[in-house]
Design goal:
The structure is a single chain. The protein is α/β, with parallel strands linked by helices. It folds into two domains: 201 residues, P-loop containing nucleotide triphosphate hydrolases (Rossmann fold, 3-Layer(aba) Sandwich); 69 residues. It is built from eleven helices and 13 strands. The strands form three sheets. The protein has a six-stranded mixed beta sheet, sandwiched between helices. It has a four-stranded antiparallel beta sheet with strand order 11-12-10-13. The chain is globular, with a radius of gyration of 21 Å. The protein starts with a strand and ends with a helix.
Length: 285
C-alpha cells in the first residue's frame, strides 16, 4: 500500500534555531492523524514542508511527489484549512464558488452549494457580513467539494463556538472521509477530536516523541488512579509521570504489566489529552 506521507530525517533550520529535527513519518491512506504539540513545537513547520511552503533538509514525499519540485501537481490532490485563512472582505460567496470552480479541476460546485444550503451562509453574502463561524463553514464547503486525497487542517476551529466546532468535525467524519482520503490535523482542542483519530503523533521541540495508532495505545500505556496510602507502592513501579486528582493520584506507566497495577487501584487507558500532558512532563523532566 502506497504511503500518503513519507519522511526520512525531515529537518528545518531557521537562523536562530532548529524547528524540526530529523523527523521520520509514515502515514497510510484512509487515516485521521492528529499532530499534537505545544506552541512552538514544530507542528506548523512540518505542515509547511508537506505543502511545499518552506524548504527543508531530508527526504519527503507527499502523495508520491516532492512538495518543493512538484507542488503544482501535488496541490491538485491536497486541500488545506488554517486558522489564519482569510478571504477578501468584499468577496461575495457566489464569487468564491466561481473562483474555486475556475481554478480547481476537481471542484464540485453542486456539492458545495448543497452544503451551504444547510447553513446560514447565502450566496449573496459578502465575507464582511459573515461571522467567523460562517467563514469557516464557507471554507469547509469549498474544501468538501474538492475531491482531494489529503486534507491538512491547522487549528481549523480555533476561536469558534462549541456547536460550530462539533458540526465541523461531524461533517468531516460523515461527509468527507472514506478509504481513499486522509486527514492530518493539528489542534489544541484534543479532547474534542480524539474519538475521531486513528493515529497520533506527539511533537516536542521539533522531534516526534510518540507515533502510534490510537487502538494500540492501551497495549503500551496505562493509567493508575490510587488513594494516598497506595502512592508509594505505585511509585515503586516507576511511572513516567504522575499528577494529583482531588485527593487521589494518577500515575502513568509505559510497558508495565497491568496485572501488577490492578491490586493498587483503578487501571485504565489514558485519554490522548492526558497522555500528551504526561509525556510532555516526562520530556521536561
Amino acid at each position: 500500500m502506497s504511503l500518503i506521507i513519507e519522511a526520512r530525517g525531515l529537518t528545518k533550520h531557521y537562523r536562530n534555531h532548529e524547528a524540526v529535527r530529523g523527523i521520520d513519518l509514515a502515514v497510510r491512506p484512509g487515516r485521521i492523524v492528529g499532530l499534537i504539540g505545544r506552541n512552538g513545537a514544530g507542528k506548523t513547520t512540518v505542515l509547511k514542508a508537506l505543502l511545499g511552503l518552506t524548504r527543508y533538509q531530508g527526504q519527503l514525499s507527499v502523495l508520491g511527489r516532492d512538495p518543493t519540485l512538484q507542488r503544482d501537481e501535488l496541490m491538485r490532490e491536497v486541500s488545506f484549512i488554517a486558522d489564519t485563512a482569510v478571504l477578501p472582505k468584499w468577496l461575495r460567496v457566489a464569487d468564491a464558488l466561481d473562483y474555486v470552480a475556475g481554478v480547481h479541476p476537481s471542484f464540485n460546485r453542486e456539492r458545495a452549494e448543497s452544503f451551504l444550503a444547510t447553513t446560514d451562509v447565502k450566496k449573496s453574502h459578502r465575507v464582511r457580513e459573515l461571522s467567523k463561524g460562517m467563514v469557516t463553514q464557507l471554507h469547509l464547503a469549498l474544501v468538501l467539494a474538492i475531491r482531494a486525497r489529503l486534507l491538512v487542517l491547522d487549528e481549523p476551529t480555533l476561536g469558534l463556538d462549541l456547536l460550530v466546532r462539533r458540526r465541523f468535525y461531524d461533517t468531516l467524519l460523515n461527509d468527507y472521509m472514506d478509504e481513499e482520503r486522509t486527514i492530518l490535523v493539528t489542534t489544541h482542542q484534543v479532547e474534542e477530536i480524539e474519538h475521531l483519530l486513528t493515529d497520533v503523533l506527539f511533537i516536542e521541540q521539533g522531534r516526534i516523541v510518540l507515533d502510534s495508532p490510537v487502538d494500540q495505545l492501551g497495549e503500551r500505556y496505562a493509567q493508575l488512579i490510587v488513594r494516598p496510602e497506595q502512592a508509594a507502592a505505585a511509585r515503586a513501579l516507576r511511572p513516567f509521570s504522575e499528577r494529583n486528582l482531588l485527593g487521589r493520584a494518577a500515575f502513568f506507566f509505559d510497558g508495565v504489566d497491568r496485572a501488577l497495577l490492578a491490586p493498587l487501584g483503578e487501571v485504565g487507558t489514558p485519554t490522548i489529552a492526558d497522555l500528551f500532558v504526561a509525556r510532555m512532563q516526562q520530556e521536561a523532566a
